[in-house]
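Supplementary Methods, section 5.1.

A reviewer requested that the exact input to the structure prediction be made available. We therefore reproduce it here, unchanged from the version used in the analyses.
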Amino acid sequence: MSPETALTVERLTVAHRASGCPIVDSVSFSLAPGEILGLVGESGSGKTSLALALLGYTRAGAALTAGRIQIGGCDLTSATENEWRRQRGGVIAYVPQDPATALNPAHRIGRQISETVRLHAGEAPSSPAVDRVGEALTAVGLPDDPAFARRYPHQLSGGQQQRVALALAFAAHPRVLVLDEPTTGLDVTTQGRVLELVHGRCEQTSTAAVYVSHDLAAVGQLADRIAVMYSGRLIEIGATKPVLVDARHPYTARLVAATPDLHSDRLPIGIPGRALSPFEPVAGCRFAPRCDQADSRCRTEVPPLVEHADGHASACWHAHAVAVTIPRTRPPRPARDPAAVLTSRSLAATHGAREVLADVDLQVKGGACLAVVGESGSGKTTLARCLIGLHPDRTGEIALLGETLARRVEDRTTEQRRALQYVFQNPYGSLNPRHTIQQILAGPLHAFEGGRMGRHHTRMRTALDRVALPATMLDRLPGQLSGGERQRVAIARALITSPRVLICDEVTSALDVSVQAAIVALLGELQRAEGLTLVFITHNLPLVAHLADQVIVLRHGRVVEQGPTEQILIRPEDPYTKTLLADTPKMTEGS
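The structure derived from this sequence is encoded token-by-token as follows.
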């Protein structure tokens, strides 16, 4: 291994213990000190399994069966668990997607940082390591005063928690940092700060990093190189701009086409078909069943990873002729009902004694989409919960079809509850894990219309068809579905009683770009075909450009700007809106 190499991975394989089926299949790459590798791919592609393997971990039922991992000249391939424990944190550190899982809720953040430094630096409690808490906090842009260090994790915002998690990871000066979706769910401003922080710290400390993400725009902003995984295999790797601008694998090109870009006129389009499970046998290229360029050779022979130029390599028999057609024109907007379907006037809301919304006026016309944007903590979700009747601590008036709505959902009429439906952010927490999809869809029908299960069976099949799911899903449990499939079921449940208005609260933030593109296309089609009215809560401004007619920008619970989408995104007037747009990642200068 070259002395200039921080991490070397050679033919790394993680397999299912019982079947021997590879989950990560013979992956190789290397990183120089300070270099950042973006690891991308759809859910189930093997990204997180590879990231965990770099730390000596595997999921239950799996094992690292082949390959080599070297960090800073140390071969960890045959390390014992005790040896791995000595390496984690000090030599290779980890930042999880949810900072709450990295922070002990019972300990103050200062104590957690000082303990990390002492543990991995091998210093005694009385050593200067205890005094490095302020230094660690300052390095990630947080206050270094003792009062802040004495806070507990729950007393911090999500962005502050993520910065503390980064402070913990960098505190012992590791050679390699593994970041697993650290900005998923963060607003664009907080995300931008975290990405800038990671880039700066890696550069200053010569720490190599593996950045796992499904957000190609964020990866394009941060990474020096990109590695693309599909069904457990590394199918393309190279410098960031060539991979994003001149992809040499149809799958990579499809990922780029599925990623919304505020600075481009192209439409995001999903990838047809579904990703194969590693347990499904395929003779040739595993992407062939979804690829419109596949031929007989692709279906019978596995393409090797071949370098083309300047370190850009791909595993495709048609690497020099990759072509994906990307629509450049949006479908025509449907005619809008000039009458306002949903309105609020002087809406204000509190959490205890704290005001979180103030003087919010809005109106959504029939068949239109209103996007509500802003940073985390701006009041977006509180507004949505006020509209649906789940946040009764509010004043002001909310009206649906001209009728004033009660503050509590249980005090509204049956027709009002049927006409105004809600899709929650988390597709994993919004469906009862013990109910089949049939029982989940039957719930609203029984609540609003009564009758026996058999009477509603056709309605349930139609509801699944509307969200592009097969009727065979009816007998499955949520745990047997992917995240995108669960979110489609949640949308089907909300639509099954034919509501007039659908409130979508960050419904794509936890989904990979291909599923996100499909969900946005689905919502747009429902608008055009059925005149559905949408309130779309999001921090993803590129999605707003493709879906919304009107935009409201919230800051600290107040509307700072509102108007037609084109006006807000192209000619914003408020400095805060301009900041949000400036912080939105751009895929690459050449895209």
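The first helix runs from residue 47 to 54. These observations are discussed further in the main text.
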